[in-house]
Design goal:
InterPro entries: D8C_UMOD/GP2/OIT3-like (IPR057774). Keywords: Disulfide bond, Signal. Pfam families: D8C_UMOD. The chain is of the alpha+beta class and about 325 residues long. The chain folds into two domains: about 20-155, no CATH class; about 165-280, no CATH class. The protein has helices spanning about 1-25, 290-295, 300-330, and strands at about 35, 60-65, 65, 70, 90-95, 105-110, 120-130, 130-135, 145, 165-170, 195-200, 205, 220-225, 240-245, 255-260, 265-270, 275-280. The strands form three sheets. Strands 10, 11, 12, 13, 14, 15, 16 and 17 form an eight-stranded mixed beta sheet that branches. The longest helix has about 30 residues, at about 300-330. It starts with a helix and ends with a helix. The model is unreliable at about 290-305 (pLDDT under 50). It binds 2-acetamido-2-deoxy-beta-D-glucopyranose (7 copies). One 2-acetamido-2-deoxy-beta-D-glucopyranose (NAG) binds near residues 207, 233, 261 and 263.
Amino acid sequence: MDIYISVCLTVLLLALCPAFKATLDPCIPGAHKELHRGKYRGTLCPYNFDKPVCDKQIEEGWYKVQGLNGPLKMPDSFSKLDVCGTNLPIWLNGSHPTEDDGTVHREGCIPTATSSCFKVVNITIKLCPGFFVYYLTPTSSCPIAYCFGADEECPPFDPCDYEYEHSVIENENGDRSSMCTTDGDPYCDDKIENGWYAIHSSNGYQRISSNCPNYSSCKTKSPIWINGSIPTIQDDIVTNKACVRDDRSCCSHMFDVEMKNCSSYVVYKLSTVPCFQRYCTDDKTECPIANISSSGNSTENGVTSKYYQGMFIFLVESIMLLVQYIYQRN
Ligand SMILES: *[C@@H]1O[C@H](CO)[C@@H](O)[C@H](O)[C@H]1NC(C)=O
Ligand SMILES: *[C@@H]1O[C@H](CO)[C@@H](O)[C@H](O)[C@H]1NC(C)=O
Ligand SMILES: *[C@@H]1O[C@H](CO)[C@@H](O)[C@H](O)[C@H]1NC(C)=O
Ligand SMILES: *[C@@H]1O[C@H](CO)[C@@H](O)[C@H](O)[C@H]1NC(C)=O
Ligand SMILES: *[C@@H]1O[C@H](CO)[C@@H](O)[C@H](O)[C@H]1NC(C)=O
Ligand SMILES: *[C@@H]1O[C@H](CO)[C@@H](O)[C@H](O)[C@H]1NC(C)=O
Ligand SMILES: *[C@@H]1O[C@H](CO)[C@@H](O)[C@H](O)[C@H]1NC(C)=O
């Protein structure tokens, strides 16, 4: 019975919600989102071939765009290709509204090599106190992205920046651990591309071992560890010695590894290594890491409590929307 009522309410509110949302002032916090990678969208920020800014995956909706030094505007003229962190930067062919203009409809231009306005996209804009909000739709493909910030440069390089500057090595079953003896085929990091990485397992972020692991552990033959202390948050990028452990020595071979403490995790500038070498982690858990689900409560209970939690958040959100709606009508 309880569940039946909740389901009915959910359906009713779901049906009404878009109607409330559509009439909401997009300036209200919560009625707009922050566009991803705002600080990489300036006209002085070059196209990043490896990780271009792309808006194919964004949700249609209202966005505010935050740069390094505050909110950003779309440039209202075409500068060139290969800027704004992307290949084809969308610029605004039109003017920004004043407060009196309210909400205005404008055209954004997708340029190509031969035309500054090869294709047009609709963009709705409103001036809010101190910033503009833009109603944006996902782009048809990559690398096309909305440009923001005339004459804005990219932020200084920071390997901690998850969005842009490092990748994550998923150590899902934790077999990089120095607790893991190598049964079966040894693995190696000969496929790893040179670059900045954080290492993550189902137990959270991990660090490269700072103790000499045993030969034939970390699911490889020659584990790689770092002979040096972990930098503090105050340190910038530090360079330490990575050691390759072989069957005779803890440090048969050495090379430099740059690293930085990003507070809750450490990032490393890693390079490809030959077989059978592999970066080894110092997690103290057993090997392999136990399944999370096997230690938790029954799935059924989990689902039910999650359902009620979701319902509660949804109800509160709906009531807030309703209040905002009534408030705006008056
Ligand atoms: C910009 O819009 C105006 C008015 O709609 C149009 O005349 C002009 O050709 C457009 N500019 C470009 C580069 O397409
Ligand atoms: C832009 O909006 C106009 C009407 O407001 C519509 O006719 C047109 O199809 C839209 N263009 C795109 C590309 O969605
Ligand atoms: C490393 O090897 C030694 C000697 O074989 C053993 O006692 C120790 O437990 C091993 N360490 C780990 C972490 O497996
Ligand atoms: C680790 O580095 C220190 C000093 O840099 C050195 O004295 C020590 O021998 C190194 N340890 C190993 C196992 O190579
Ligand atoms: C980063 O440094 C702080 C001390 O400044 C330390 O407490 C923290 O554990 C370090 N982070 C990691 C992931 O090691
Ligand atoms: C973890 O779960 C998977 C599938 O659910 C199972 O195949 C695997 O044996 C489990 N591992 C452990 C250590 O329990
Ligand atoms: C499951 O939940 C019950 C009550 O909420 C608790 O008493 C029990 O210890 C939990 N079991 C596990 C394996 O966490």
